[in-house]
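#lab-general

N.A. 3:47 PM
ok so I finally got the sequence cleaned up, no stray characters, all 76 residues accounted for. can someone with queue access submit it? mine expired

B.Y. 3:52 PM
send it over

N.A. 3:53 PM
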Amino acid sequence: MNGYKVSGRFKMGDNWMPFEIELVAESEEGAHEKGLSVIGSRHRTKRKDIEIGTISSITAEEATSPVVQYHLEASK
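B.Y. 4:20 PM
back already:
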């Protein structure tokens, strides 16, 4: 498992809201899918209204999310 930071924006009403989340996935493609899933679920937004801007790989030391840190340290 690898850590990823996914950032982009999603449509909420008439406005576009920026987001940045950290998550654990097998690949960059998996991080893209999980990012769409998490944002859609949290904000009740359809996938067509979510734009992923960047996906970057992160280490356990760079992660700020305790859940991501735990998974990355456990997989060492």
